[in-house]
Amino acid sequence: MRKIVGIAASSGRVAGRCFRVGSRSPSGESAIDPQPGAIQEDLEVQRFSGARLLVKERLSSHLDESPIFAAHLEILDDISHRVIARIKQGPMDALAAVEETVKEICSLFDGIADDYLRSRSDDIVDVGRQLRFALTSNQENPFSPMEENSILITDNLLVSDTLLIDRQKLAGIALREGSKSSHIAILSRDQGIPLVLGLGGSIDAIPDNEMVIIDGDSGEVFIDPEEEMLADLTVRRGEVEVDREPAITRDGTRVEVLANAGSLEEVKEAIARGADGIGLLRTEFIFMRGSDFPDEEQQHAIYLACARACNGKSITLRTLDIGADKQLPYSTIVAGENPLLGIRGIRHSLLYPAIFKIQLRAILRASMVGNLRVMFPMISSIEEYTSAASLLEECKAELRSEGLPFDEKLQAGMMVETPASVILADDFARAVAFFSIGTNDLTQYILAVDRNNPYSEKACDHLHGAILKSLSMVVSASRTHGIDVSVCGEMASDPLATVPLLECGVRKFSVSARRVASIKEQIRRQEI
Ligand code: PEP
Ligand code: MG
Predict the structure, then answer these.
(1) What contacts 339, CB < 8 A, 6 or more positions away?
(2) Residue 395 annotated to the active site
(3) Less crowded by CB within 10 Å, the N or C end of the chain?
(4) Mutation test of ligand 1: which of 316, 321, 417 has the most ligand atoms closer than 8 Å to its C-beta?
(5) 51-68: per-residue pLDDT in tens?
(6) Coil, strand or helix: which one is 481?
(7) What 3-state class would DSSP assign to 243?
(8) CATH class for the domain made up of 252-524
(9) Residues whose CB is less than 8 angstroms from the CB of residue 46 and which lie 6 or more positions away in sequence, other chains included
(10) pLDDT score for 29
(11) Diameter of the chain by CA atoms?
(12) CA–CA distance, 160 with 291 (Å, rounded to integer)
């Protein structure tokens, strides 16, 4: 038996056979090997033309949303001529021809000092990605050969990958990369999938198909474990902790413990476990289930079902927060050199108001049921908030004129997850109905540390003095202006953070559904 150690990211100790898949990270797309023997020129040109048509249709349908799409259409035309020439010259398969063409054009931009021209190279990479997706979307699901009781071993996973995985067969996950506050870690915790990540090069020591035990509480991975170890194993999956009593501190202060969710199933689970409501519904996880942006009716149906599942308890829907490690394969976002600082959250919604308005209308229509609120992610300026709020007003006016009912008193609030929103908390508190503090991004942006990077895991510390001071500032601004405040980042689910959060004045937590009972217990032990 051998042991390797990574970062413990999602609880549970499980055994299973290793199932390895190639790199899934957006930057780590594997290179395509041209296969001259198997290539039929006409067939490849035909395949490529089909993919080109798909991309063209998608881009054309977004033309009125941003000039970027017109530019992408031009690039598509330019690339297409070159790709077809390359297929014929090779002969080369369509996918390889796209890769080579993009590489060739981008190399012409290398070394150019002009920022604008260099950013054109990002557009070319982006169009190349869209072609690649169109060419490969019918390919086999890489996770489908996975057998019962498998431990998935790979470099990294995108949240959207989890939709391709058969949960019945998955025992746990071990990753080379990733960090505790990455979205794949959050999702695993929410879904109770044991996860060890940040294993680095040591992950290569695991032979394919080998028996392994992973411990998502200690970060250990045991390769070829001894029989007794396997026999002793207590599998924690399926254990359901329920606590429907209110969380009241020893000195009588009521603290609300709500839950985070990313789907209707998770909303139901959280309410069944005794959550006081849903403090954060990550609607982007719902968007990730489809192959295109869901329309108003589809969104309305799911938001309505989520609101109903809360049985009158409050639910806060966050508008689409994509970008960085939450990508939609069908989206035409330009990733840029640093997606964490690029088109994310509200920036995406304001850049594509047509997509945003469909979501706002669906949310408004669902607000007739239950106790629903809406909030905007990644706000960093008052102008961003007021632009989002005025689009919300525009949607209300449309619905009124169409005779469609909605809750006229629907509250709109914002995530506090950028340093600017903390610094301007007093100003924001005058404009919004509530704050929800996203400590995952707040920690990343205040401490200048990538929440997805395993090598800076220790530095990504939500108990850092600067984070605690920020929390106190935001709570104090909310009290001054009499608005509601809660914490929905992973910090709220961390039992070591319960006391510091209470000391900062936080009285509303939104935690992972599986932590509802333990955080309530932790709160009941405290005196404020
Ligand atoms: C956060 O940043 O703390 C948060 C709750 O949002 P997300 O984790 O979805 O970015
Ligand atoms: Mg966030």
Answers:
(1) 323, 324
(2) no
(3) N
(4) 417
(5) 898 888 877 877 776 666
(6) coil
(7) coil
(8) alpha beta
(9) none
(10) 44
(11) 79
(12) 11
Domain with CATH 1.10.274.10 in the chain: 26-136
For 49, 334, 344, 457, the CA distances from 72, given in Å and listed in that order, are 16, 10, 20, 37
- How many angstroms is it from 409 CA to the middle of ligand 2? 26
* The one catalytic residue among 62, 183, 300, 462: 183
User: Which of 284-288, 289-293, 523-527 shows the lowest mean pLDDT across its residues?
Assistant: 289-293
Write the pLDDT tens digit of every residue in 119-164: 567 778 778 877 887 887 655 678 889 998 899 999 988 765 776 7
Both tokens of residue 273?
């476990």
Report CA(199)–ligand 1 centroid distance (Å): 24
| Residues 320-375 pLDDT 10s | 999 888 888 788 776 677 888 989 999 999 999 999 999 999 999 999 998 999 99
Does residue 259 contact residue 503 with C-beta atoms inside 8 Å?
A: no
State how far the Cα of 126 lies from the Cα of 59, in Å rounded to an integer.
12
Alpha carbon distance 381, 347 (integer Å)? 11
Do 199 and 221 touch, CB atoms closer than 8 A?
yes
Contacts 24+ apart (CB under 8 A), 231-234: 233/13, 233/14, 233/15, 234/13
Angle, vertex CA 129, rays to CA 125 and CA 131, nearest 5: 115
Rounded CA separation 14/234 (Å): 8
The Cα 365–Cα 147 span in angstroms is 43
Residue nearest to atom 3 of ligand 1 (CA): 438
Instruction: Kindly identify the ligand whose nearest atom is closest to the C-alpha of 180.
Output: 1
CA of 516 to the centre of ligand 2 (A): 20
Question: CATH 3.20.20.60: which residues of the chain?
Answer: 252-524
Amino acid at 262: G
CATH 1.10.274.10, domain 26-136, yes or no: yes
CATH 3.50.30.10: which residues of the chain? Answer: 2-24+142-238
Q: How far apart are CA 169 and CA 144, in angstroms?
A: 10
Top-level class of domain 2-24+142-238: alpha beta
Cβ atoms < 10 Å from Cβ of 265: 11
In the chain, % of residues over pLDDT 70: 91
From the alpha carbon of 489, which atom of ligand 1 is closest?
Answer: 3
Highest mean pLDDT (candidates 97-106, 180-189, 323-332): 97-106
What residues flank ligand 1, with Cβ below 6 Å?
Answer: 186, 280, 282, 321, 417, 438-441, 488-489
